[in-house]
Amino acid sequence: MSTQWYPLLSPCLPRLYGLTPRGVALARLVLFSVILLIAGLPVSDALAATGHHASTGKRRDDAVKKKKATAKKPSKPPHRKAVAASTSRKRTASPRAKGPAGRKATKPPREAKAAVKRPSAAAKRSAGAKRSTAATVARAAPAVPVAAAKVPHAQVSTDAKPRLLARCGFTPASRKRLFSRAVYIVDEKTNTPLFAHNADQVRPIASLSKLMTAVVWLDSRPAMRAPLTVTKADLDTLKYTHSRLAVGSTLSRTDMLHISLMASENRAAAALSRDYPGGRKAFISAMNAKARALNMPNTRFENSTGLSPRNVSTARELARLVRASNAYPLIRRYSIDHQQQVHTGKGQLQYVNTNRLVRFGKVNASVQKTGFIKESGHSMVMRVMVHNRRPVIVTMLGSDTPEGSRLDGVRIAHWLSCSLQ
Q1: Residues with Cβ < 8 Å from 355, sequence gap 6 or more?
Q2: Which CATH number fits the domain that encloses residue 365?
Q3: Does residue 109 sit within a domain?
Q4: Number of Cβ within a 10 Å radius of residue 7
Q5: Domain boundary among 31, 62, 93
Q6: pTM here?
Q7: Rounded to whole angstroms, how far apart are CA atoms 399 and 394?
Q8: 369 and 231, same structural domain?
Q9: Within a domain: 75
Q10: Which of 2, 57, 187, 268 is deepest in the core (most CB within 10 A)?
């Protein structure tokens, strides 16, 4: 059956019968409908297939016609609408393009592009003149050294007034939580007070007196390796405090100074004052004279150990004593030492630092001293090295407990490390 109907459905129908493509499509539609009705297939599928073939044949014929028409016409360079539009806008915007009749002179697109790309000779000459002028000015200007350019920045960072910051915990609520009754914090580099609370209040200072004991004794330039023996004259007759250093113990003067500063050994400090040229009375006079020389008018000493409540000073004046003590290498070394074993002639004694912040490495200090008697409370002075390079002196007097003094030191150390750079 397919062989009988194939000539009718072939693409040669336009040549055989002289029909148009639309007529051929219509004939195919009718023939397919009849065949499918006989075969029992749905007519919708046949209609879709017929429409597809018809449209495909029509598109093919249109494409062939377009190719023929293009081959006959001469080729012309296409112009883009965007280029034409931009050229027209440029012609409209330029005010100098008007002719004598009031019309706007037009330029071909290529000439306009060339004018934009290539600057005129006059423009080149003016640009060259500007460059030469700039070079002349640059040669005439004096050269500024790099170090001089960096001086203002360094001066700002060095001379800037330091202060404790609220974001670092330095708030009114935090300051009220301090356990010490008198506190003074001063930046040694700029001599700027960072915080003062009852800083000029005269209070007993207890064993903080031993810093002055060490300063005055070292000023006498004693023989450090010479032995020194503890006698009954060195016993405490004020508070009757106990000491591990028994009468008859013999130590070198170096060890006496060491345990006096680090472990606050009272009998060692008493032995040093007794060993002073002129005796203990001359030593106390030298301590008060040194206080006046350091501009400490409210400071008084009655003994070298600090067991007397009449050894008094202020938090502000003690900061001056700490600064003076830092000039002595032995005070710096012995006061911050963690522990020391000494030979007494009757055996060995192990001493540790009384300042737990220094002993356990919670604070980096170059000078420190603690003190306590009932009248003074627990006190502490330190020369804290903030970030291991910036010295700040901290004096804290009158805490009821040693834990309160320690917590104040931790709090203040946090203020300093966070606020100062």
Answers
A1: 368, 369, 370, 380, 382
A2: 3.40.710.10
A3: no
A4: 10
A5: 62
A6: 0.64
A7: 14
A8: yes
A9: no
A10: 268
Active site residue 210: yes
Residue of 180, 209, 210, 399 marked catalytic: 210
- How far apart (Å, rounded) are the C-alpha atoms in residues 286 and 271? 16
Residue 116, in any domain of the structure: no
Local structure of 373: helix, strand or coil = strand
313 with 191, same domain? yes
Annotated active-site residue in 209, 249, 264, 399: 264
Predicted confidence (pLDDT) per residue in 333-386, tens digit:
999 999 999 999 989 999 999 999 999 999 999 999 999 999 999 999 999 999
What is the C-alpha separation between 320 and 186, in angstroms, rounded? Answer: 10
Burial classification of residue 188, based on how many CB atoms lie within 10 Å of its CB (0-12 exposed, 13-18 middle, 19 or more buried): middle
Binding-site residues for substrate sit at: 369
Say which residues have a Cβ less than 8 Å from residue 406's Cβ, sequence separation at least 6. 356, 357
Residues 393 and 315 sit within 8 Å (Cβ to Cβ): no
Token pair 């810093």: residue: 211
Tokens standing for 419?
A: 């606020």
Pair (250, 379) in one structural domain: yes
Q: Which domain holds residue 44?
A: 2-62
pLDDT band for position 99 (50/70/90)? very low
In a domain, 39, yes or no: yes
Residues 366 and 220 occupy one common structural domain: yes
Beta-sheet strand order (sheet of 377-386): 192-197, 182-187, 390-399, 377-386, 365-373
Same domain, 177 and 323: yes
> Residue 351's beta-bridge partner residues?
340
Contact 169, 418 (CB under 8 A): yes
Let me know if 249 is a catalytic residue: no
Q: How many domains does the chain have?
A: 2
- The residue out of 18, 41, 62 marking a domain boundary is 62
The owner of tokens 């494409």 is: 63
In the residue annotation, 308 being an active-site residue is answered as: no
The Cα–Cα gap between 275 and 222 comes to: 9
The pLDDT value given to residue 344? 93
Are residues 41 and 184 both part of a single domain?
Answer: no
> Annotated binding site: which residue ranges?
369
